[in-house]
Input
Amino acid sequence: KPRTKYVGNLLKSRLNTRIRTLLSDIGNAGDTLGMEIFVVGGFVRDLMLERPIEDVDVVVEGDGIVFARYFSSIHHCRFHQHRKFNTAVIIFEDGFKVDVASARLEYYATPAALPVVENSSIKMDLARRDFTINTLAISLNAESFGTLIDYFGGVRDIKDKIIRIIHNLSFIEDPTRIFRAIKFSNRFGFRIGKVTANLIKNALNVGAVKHLSGLRVLSELKQIFSEDNPLPAVQTMADYGIDKVIHHDLKLTDTTCALFRSVGKTLAWHDLLYSDDVYPRWSVYFMAWLHGYSFTVSTQIADRLMFPIKEKELLLEQRIKAAQQIRLIEKKHPVSNQQMYRWLIHFKTECLLFMLALTKKESVRKAISHFYTHQRKTQPLIGGKDLKSLGITPGPVYSTILNKIIDEKLDGKLNTMEEEIKFAKEYAFENKLI
Ligand code: CTP
Output
């Protein structure tokens, strides 16, 4: 029997009207179809932890596809079904999604003359999950709306701040859970329980991560590196010797830890000021993780993790270029605005952020952030058409002129189209182009 608790007040105080209405609409649709329905997993965990809620995952006792079809028809949204897994996604007009899974009612014949028992299928569904903190469910049917159902001690473990698996073969069945344990422990500041930690060590000893496909390890690492502060997780991975399993030369040094802290500060600065300039957050930490390893070792790591070609290029070529560039800038600093522009303009945001994190020189950091803030978007207001109408014959000279305009603009000159045209005209005249 599960422990239950009424958390309707928590739903009221913590959720916005839209999500609350959505949950009761889901419950009502379940009632109409005669299906028990629950919101589960990360949603409930984050609700209890008072953290922002991102996904709504529901489990239906019955056919989730039938439920999604019915719900979509009465609420005018779309849905996608995955027959193979008996799951569906309900998609609202603005793109908001609800994942629907099916828990089957299963009947077990008990020995002797005892009756056949119906095992609560939500329990079976929750029992397959990774950690106790992810096994909580809240009933959405009108009669029991807001009842929290706790079969595996998830509430207690949230209170005790502990990550615990539900059954001993969990990490063997799915070794990606080793990374997930570390991710959650880092994200929530929870410790990994003693038995759970020993099972991680056992799984590592029998080669669970060694035999995991690169793609799956990569996906977990990207998630860890996307967290607010991945450093404690990287340290925990090193403590378990997971980095060594990925590549025997990987070793977490004080230099890498310091670089991670520096990346953290840089990203915090960037995200505060430039929240609309999106970049793959994980990639900056990945560059920091690989910094200091030779091209050969980095290539072996990238191949082991089956990096797609574009990302591999970023983490190998671009990262090394960025590191070389920052050393050159440190050596030559201060340089003209124009020189800085030409050096930096081809680097992506994530590489510029990595460079900012790499340099220890305050003046260099200032110069790069100046480039980022004021010069990066510098473009002439006029184009080839305008040059043509001045009577200049098209050719390589066009880019020469446009580049000269950029040079002027980098010094704060030529602020209007008229000024640029005047400049182009004078240049063409002096060089006998017209
Ligand atoms: N799950 C699992 N084993 C995995 C991955 C997922 O048991 N290897 C279960 C977890 O119990 C989780 C659910 O599937 O609650 C959904 O997983 P996921 O989409 O990763 O969601 P969250 O737990 O919410 O994680 P995050 O907050 O990082 O999105």
About this structure: The pocket of cytidine-5'-triphosphate is lined by residues 41-42, 55, 129-130, 134, 174, 176-177, 180 (CB under 6 Å).
